């Protein structure tokens, strides 16, 4: 850490914190924790120390607009100048969706970017804040880097900053502080241009112009509002008002910016109501997740990935074919069946987008996704909510079929992977860990045993060896495979900020055409009992039912 080349840079004494280990997607804590003196600064300095030297490099900064976003950006700019960066690109108003940040990093050949978001976690003075670093490929820092950043935080004694006034974030401008040029950029245009270059906008325009296809996009008062308005309303001609809750608010209007059937209820009412909309979509706090709905019809994200893969050849960007696909381990195996039919490789990775980065960079995969409403491709290195919505709209425009028909035809051809995730939120952390530990201790003896009348065929604690750099990641969730073809996965969330969140993932394959239209919880009823019987969820969590079912 040197200040020689920045005249006004000053060393500020600080004390290390011991709890700055990044989780599934960056460091997430309560706003109050981030507001402690030095807390944000220490983490940012740890990032800069890890990627040093910063001298002469370009950095992208932006966030999802939640409470503390603007204050954090001012801190980061002062520190980035003091650390020697020569160029900083900041989204106007402090706004950059996660996919747009990835796009801007790549387009401008920056050395990386700092994205301020706690994604789907609520925002506000008593809620959550988050920070993550993405590298020059535009993707989340791999584990090697996040581990190094964490090590830096443990011994942090000082950080670098300068004395400078806050800069004006709301006007597009180019400023100079010391050696550093700061550009306040339009957060939407680069991303919108990229989308326009990938999809058949004229086919989608015709679809929307017909007037008998009604669409609604719920931005959930989060970052994607301006992006959705520009792309759906301005460039594609959807009627004004098609985007609802389109202004980013610091507290997301008091809601939970998580695009699922529970939290996106306003949208759900519109597509399920009388004379429901033909197409509904929502995205999360930072714009990287998506939920897509047809008229009174829900698409499971695992099915969505499989269907996009099966139909990629209909989209201009993928017309030449796709190299391979990947899904996170808990995601259902629906996409595996499509990959097999297409004769392309299918990779199974740990939870979190950072594990797709190497596969994408190496050209081994083109599309990838997670059960948690995240889908994406090699166009950037993050999951991308609006991209998935546009992919679906493009498919509908080309196939000239409603969403429900596209999905049902897919099930008829490939069979259906019933999938559900049960979340037990904010449970006692010690109990949750004890439950997982006891499961792990049983793994070796599970095979052959029966639970709730169903025999276990195999079980393991998922580990992953990256096929590109051979890095090994262990303890990624307990997988239990059953004789009836079902699978149960238990893991603890790495994004929560309160207690522990237990996630139980259940999936089962069905290819009998007469059994493709069952209610999901019913179809998985037997597996739900097996999960309880094998793990003792009630006993350990004290809960009789999950908080959220998706
Ligand atoms: C959750 C999801 C995971 C996703 C992660 C970040 O992690 O399960 O699939 O990648 O959130 O998503 P966890 O550890 O809580 O299960 V988000 O949209 O930050 O952007
Ligand atoms: Co997100």
Can you describe this structure?
By secondary structure, the protein is of the alpha/beta class. It folds into three domains: 178 residues, Alpha-D-Glucose-1,6-Bisphosphate, subunit A, domain 3 (Alpha-D-Glucose-1,6-Bisphosphate, Chain A, domain 3); 224 residues, Alpha-D-Glucose-1,6-Bisphosphate, subunit A, domain 3 (Alpha-D-Glucose-1,6-Bisphosphate, Chain A, domain 3); 134 residues, TATA-Binding Protein, CATH 3.30.310.50. 33% of the residues lie in helices and 24% in strands. Strand 13 and strand 14 form a beta hairpin. Helix 7 packs across helix 13 and helix 10 runs parallel beside helix 11. The radius of gyration is 23 Å and the shape is globular. The protein starts with 9 loop residues before the first strand and ends with a strand. It binds alpha-D-glucose-1-phosphate-6-vanadate and cobalt (II) ion (CO). Alpha-D-glucose-1-phosphate-6-vanadate binds next to loops. It is an enzyme of class 5 (isomerase).
Query: Which secondary-structure class do the elements indicate?
Result: alpha/beta
Largest sheet: 7 strands, mixed
- The helix content, as a percent range, equals 25-40%
Radius of gyration: 23 Å
Main-sheet strand order equals 2-6-5-3-4-9-8
Return the average pLDDT rounded to an integer: 95
Strand proportion, as a percent range, falls in 15-25%
Tally of distinct domains: 3
CATH superfamily of the largest domain: Alpha-D-Glucose-1,6-Bisphosphate, subunit A, domain 3
Our measurement of the CA-to-CA distance between the termini, rounded to an integer number of angstroms, reads: 47 Å
Low-confidence stretches: none
Shape: globular
DSSP strand tally? 27
């Amino acid at each position: 850490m040197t200040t020689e080349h920045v005249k006004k840079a000053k060393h500020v004494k600080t004390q290390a914190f011991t709890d700055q280990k990044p989780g599934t997607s960056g460091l997430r804590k309560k706003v109050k924790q981030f507001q402690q003196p030095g807390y944000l600064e220490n983490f940012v300095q740890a990032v800069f120390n890890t990627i040093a030297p910063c001298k002469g490099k370009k950095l992208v900064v932006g966030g999802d607009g939640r409470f503390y976003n603007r204050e954090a950006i001012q801190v980061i700019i002062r520190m980035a100048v003091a650390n020697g960066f020569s160029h900083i690109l900041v989204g106007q108003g402090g706004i950059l969706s996660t996919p747009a940040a990835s796009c801007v990093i790549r387009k401008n050949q920056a050395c990386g970017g700092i994205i301020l978001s706690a994604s789907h976690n609520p925002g506000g003075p008593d809620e959550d804040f988050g920070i993550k670093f993405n590298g020059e490929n535009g993707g989340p820092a791999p584990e090697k880097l996040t581990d190094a950043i964490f090590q830096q935080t443990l011994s942090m004694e000082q950080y670098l900053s300068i004395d400078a006034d806050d800069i004006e974030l709301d006007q597009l401008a180019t400023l100079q502080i010391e050696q550093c040029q700061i550009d306040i950029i339009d957060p939407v245009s680069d991303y919108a241009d990229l989308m326009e270059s990938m999809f058949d906008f004229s086919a989608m325009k015709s679809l929307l112009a017909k007037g008998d296809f009604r669409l609604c996009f719920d931005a959930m008062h989060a970052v994607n509002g301006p992006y959705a308005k520009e792309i759906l309303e301005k460039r594609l001609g959807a009627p004004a008002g098609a985007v609802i809750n389109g202004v980013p608010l610091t507290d997301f209007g008091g809601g939970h910016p998580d695009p699922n059937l529970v939290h996106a209820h306003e949208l759900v009412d519109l597509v399920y109501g009388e004379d429901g909309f033909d197409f509904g979509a929502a995205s999360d706090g930072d714009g990287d997740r998506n939920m897509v709905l047809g008229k009174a019809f829900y698409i499971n994200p695992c099915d969505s990935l499989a269907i996009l893969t099966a139909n990629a050849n209909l989209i201009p960007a993928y017309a030449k074919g796709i190299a391979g696909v990947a899904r996170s381990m808990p995601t259902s195996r629906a996409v595996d069946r499509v990959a097999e039919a297409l004769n392309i490789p299918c990779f199974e990775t740990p939870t979190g987008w950072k594990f797709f980065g190497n596969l994408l960079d190496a050209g081994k995969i083109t599309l990838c996704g997670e059960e948690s409403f995240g889908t994406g491709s090699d166009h950037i290195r993050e999951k991308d909510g609006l991209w998935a919505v546009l992919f679906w709209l493009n498919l509908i425009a080309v196939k000239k079929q409603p969403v429900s028909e596209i999905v049902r035809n897919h099930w008829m051809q490939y069979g259906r992977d019933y999938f559900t995730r049960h979340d037990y939120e904010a449970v006692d952390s010690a109990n949750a860990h004890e439950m997982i530990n006891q499961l792990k201790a049983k793994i070796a003896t599970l095979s052959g045993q029966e639970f709730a009348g169903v025999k276990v065929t195999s079980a393991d604690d998922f580990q992953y060896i990256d096929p590109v750099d051979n890095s090994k990641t262990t303890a990624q969730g307990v997988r239990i495979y059953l004789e009836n073809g079902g699978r149960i996965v238990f893991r603890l969330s790495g994004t929560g900020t309160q207690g522990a969140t237990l996630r139980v993932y259940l999936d089962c394959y069905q290819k009998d055409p007469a059994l493709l239209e069952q209610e999901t919880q019913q179809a998985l009823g037997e597996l739900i009992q097996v999960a309880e019987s094998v793990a003792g969820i009630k006993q350990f969590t004290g809960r009789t039912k999950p908080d959220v079912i998706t």
